[in-house]
Amino acid sequence: MGLTGCSAPTDVGPLVAPGRADPLASARQVSTPDDSAGPVADEAVARVDGSAISRAEWQLAVRLDRAMSRLAGRPAPDPESTLDRLINARLVLAQAQHLNVTPQEAEQRLAGLQRLWRVDQAQFAQALADAQLTQLDVLEEIRRLLTIERYLNQLGDAQAAAAWLRTQRARAQVGIYVDLKAYTSLLTSAPPPLLRAPAAQTPSASPAALALQTTLAPSPAPPIEPTATPPALDTGVFPGQVAPGFGLPQLDSEMTISLAAFRGRPVIVNFWASWCPPCRQEIPALQAAAQRYAAQDVVVLAVDVREAAQTVRAFAATMNMQFPILLDANGAVADLYQVQGIPTTVFVDAAGVVRARHVGPLTEALIADYVQPLLDEAPAAAPAAAPAAAPATAPATALDLSRATPAIAPDFELAGASNHRVRLSNYRGQAQVVLVFYRATTCGTCLIQLVELQRAYATFKQRGAEVIAIAPQDVEMAARTVASTQAAFPILADVDHTVSAQYGVYDTLGDGQVTPAVFIIDRAGAVAWSYIGRTPGDRPSVEDILSQLD
Fold first, then answer.
1. Domains in the chain, ordered, with CATH?
2. E strand or H helix that includes residue 51
């Protein structure tokens, strides 16, 4: 997912009282680009392509979300999610200028919502008063949402609308100018729910509602307490979850840097870009942290998002950046880490667990607050993934790579997306096969590898090779992987790990998962080359694989 924002308001429109902003007009304005060397206005919470989201706009949106959630009898979104929704709304409104929603339509929708929520006028007025809102505020918001709904409905179903929005976000540039955590703590908590009769069954969400709500994960949980033996944890990007693995090329180096390579050391993963003024603002603090904590084995990884190497190189030289700079050229790792705006920084402990997530610029004092708890803990063993039952013994047909003569690859037949079945022996005498085993859809470096293989797929075909990917998953997950990576080659479901065990890559790392591995099988059906990873993120490059083909 990409990085976006909104613009400043004006006083126009039939629903606008004196001094009040028209929510549609704000999306039409064109403001000057950010001056990366200039001051940042105190009122700007975020900027996108030079347009600001003010603190007043954000706080109004928070109050509206809380009041409407209270009336609907639902939990209110956290302020960061509201900012994300506000960003999405501005992106749509920028394209929906030709659409017109009248005040009467907004009033009719509000009346319908009150009937759906089963709230009378007194309850409605109380909820608005508690949130310091007027009915005009609500009508303006409904008018805006109706415009969004009308535009997204033109795009098709909810899936099409969400896909369109993801594309828009990927094209935009967003800088977060404030510490969202600090700002969020200043906002008051929502009042208790209204007491009323149970509401009627809520109708299915519109494409507008679904698209605007699908881009930001739940707000971070509190930092976890250390334990002597870490429990089995889910993989994810919020505190208490195992940080997804990834591997990225380092600027001006042939090396690929993986997060897994730093297991046993605290890691600060900072997502940034050269166009982003708040990123420039925090770089001296990151540089100071890299130097201050170097003796304590703390690693700073600066992940540049969607920029060319020459742009990053010139900027890094200007800022004298001395810590590793990684190139996330297509934004895949930023998407994996659900980065909605930059700078965003994730603090990972020595066991590979996310301990904190910070959106907005950092200072030396803030970095110290995040890093010190990681240094106070004794290094812990890597957390175990959710266990899966491993076979007691390997099958009789297990691949033996220690033989002097090439081993014959075990044959298999597995189903992939749409239950399409693939049999390895069908390629014998026809093509070489690049057989790729990946761990799961939660494995970030695995998904990156699949994307890289897809980019080079035409080259593999030209070299007379077919690519086949296998993972311990069901057919539905295989189909999702095809959709997320846009893979044109087969992605197969090894549900019971039988094939993974035959190839000797099941549970070899002792975590109940498949070890990332690549086998090249020649036209005679023998294993001509193999690469079995030693860590969850260890994998060969596409160039290495191509070099081993006939």
1. 25-213 (1.10.4030.10), 247-376 (3.40.30.10), 413-547 (3.40.30.10)
2. strand 51-54
To 5 degrees, how large is the angle CA 235–CA 236–CA 239? Answer: 115
Give 345's strand partners: 270, 358
pTM: 0.55
Token pair of 139 as six digits: 């009508």
* pLDDT, tens digit (0-9, with 9 covering 90-100), for 369-382: 999 999 886 444 44
Q: Which residues 6+ apart lie within 8 Å of 177 measured at CB?
A: 40, 44, 45, 46, 47, 277, 278, 360, 361
Confirm if 42 and 50 have CB atoms less than 8 A apart.
no
Give the residue among 9, 357, 367 at the shortest CA–CA distance from 184. 357
HSE-up of residue 269 (Cα within 13 Å, Cβ side) = 34
Q: Could you tell me the two tokens for 197?
A: 């009769």
HEC profile for 313-354? HHHHHHHCCCCCEEEECCCHHHHHCCCCCECEEEEECCCCEE
Q: What is the pLDDT of residues 428-487, one digit of tens each?
A: 888 899 999 998 766 777 888 888 999 999 999 999 999 999 988 888 888 888 888 888
Distance of alpha carbon 425 from the chain centroid: 38
Surface-to-core class of residue 217, CB atoms within 10 Å of its CB (0-12 exposed, 13-18 middle, 19+ buried): middle
Check: CB of residue 437 under 8 Å from CB of residue 470. yes
Type of residue found at 422: V
Amino acid letter, 260? A
Task: Tell me the H-state helices in 96-225.
Answer: 103-117, 121-130, 135-155, 158-171, 180-186, 207-213
Lowest mean pLDDT among 90-99, 137-146, 386-395: 386-395
State the Rg of the chain over Cα: 26
Six-digit token pair at 194? 């209204």
List the one residue out of 232, 256, 304, 335 whose CA is nearest residue 535.
256
CA distances from 84 to 88, 268, 326 (A): 6, 24, 26
**HSE-up (13 A, CA, CB side) for residue 211:** 31
Given a contact cutoff of 8 angstroms between Cβ atoms, the answer to whether 280 and 294 are in contact is no
Q: Which residue has the tokens 């002097």?
A: 404
The counts of H helices and E strands in the chain are 17, 17
Strand boundaries in 284-376, DSSP class E: 299-305, 325-328, 344-348, 354-359
Question: At 52, is the secondary structure helix, strand, or coil?
Answer: strand
User: What letter does residue 342 receive in the DSSP assignment?
Assistant: B
SS3 453: helix
User: What angle do helix axes 135-155 and 55-72 make, rounded to 10 degrees?
Assistant: 90
